[in-house]
Design goal:
The structure is a single chain. The chain has helices at residues 3-16, 49-54, 61-72, 98-115, 125-131, 137-140, 158-163, 168-187; strands at residues 40-44, 81-84, 119-123, 145-147, 150-155, 201-202. The protein has 206 residues and is α/β, with parallel strands linked by helices. The chain has a single domain (3-188), classed as Uracil-DNA glycosylase-like domain (Uracil-DNA Glycosylase, subunit E). The protein has a six-stranded mixed β-sheet with strand order 2-1-3-5-4-6, with helices on both faces. A hairpin with a 2-residue loop joins β4 and β5 (150-155). It is globular.
Length: 206
């Protein structure tokens, strides 16, 4: 099964999933969207109202800001893959709960393996916690780490920049560094996951 087929299968499974209580409020699952060969994988937290209606990630105000940030570095949404740590909307946009994160984790792992991105950008603290469970996003945003052989960079969630405008310059600055990170990741052969230490290793690329 190739990457495109794997992603389609994950999407179909998400649409029928009953592994946690979030399915009860689901109109449409939001497995993610983007090319199977994307170099950058963005991982957000969970679908909101508009995403639940349309079945697509980041289609509300936060999505507009994400598109703006991508455009600022010469990228279009069609060039990246965008997903979330949970694929169904939490009620009233509350934080995803541990059992919900666990229920969706297999889907996310399969997406990461299929896409094999050069860089993973986590948007918000819940997606960051998948890779850096003990970190504070205010302390580590924009800092690249190699985790299990992959380059992972935590960013503030665009919604946080909308609700707290003082975070928008930091989000823009972190996006501005992405081209250099992608270039460095492309030039450096990533180590095999088995060769990686258990603890994440911070890289200094700029």
């Amino acid at each position: 099964m190739n990457a495109t087929e794997t992603l389609a299968q994950v999407a179909a499974e998400c649409a029928a999933c009953t592994n946690c209580g979030l399915h009860a409020g689901r109109k449409k699952a939001v497995p993610g969207v983007g090319p199977a060969e994307a170099e950058i994988l963005f991982i957000g937290e969970g679908p909101g109202y508009n995403e639940n209606e349309q079945g697509l990630p980041f289609v509300g105000q936060a999505g507009k800001l994400l598109d703006e940030m991508l455009a600022s570095i010469g990228l279009r949404r069609a060039q990246v893959f965008i997903t979330n740590v949970v694929k169904c909307r939490p009620p009233a946009n509350r934080d995803p709960q541990p059992e919900e994160l666990a229920a969706c984790n297999e889907y996310l792992e399969r997406q990461i393996a299929a896409i094999n991105p050069k860089v993973i950008v986590t948007l918000g603290r819940f997606s960051m916690a998948k890779f850096l469970p003990n970190a504070r996003i205010s302390a580590v945003h924009g800092q690249p780490h190699t985790i299990n052989g992959r380059l992972v960079v935590p960013f503030f969630h665009p919604a946080a920049a909308l609700h707290q405008p003082d975070r928008r310059p930091a989000l823009a600055a972190d996006f501005a560094r992405l081209p250099a990170l992608i270039a460095a990741a492309t030039q450096t052969e990533p180590p095999h996951p088995a060769d990686e230490p258990d603890e994440p290793r911070q890289l200094t690329l700029f």
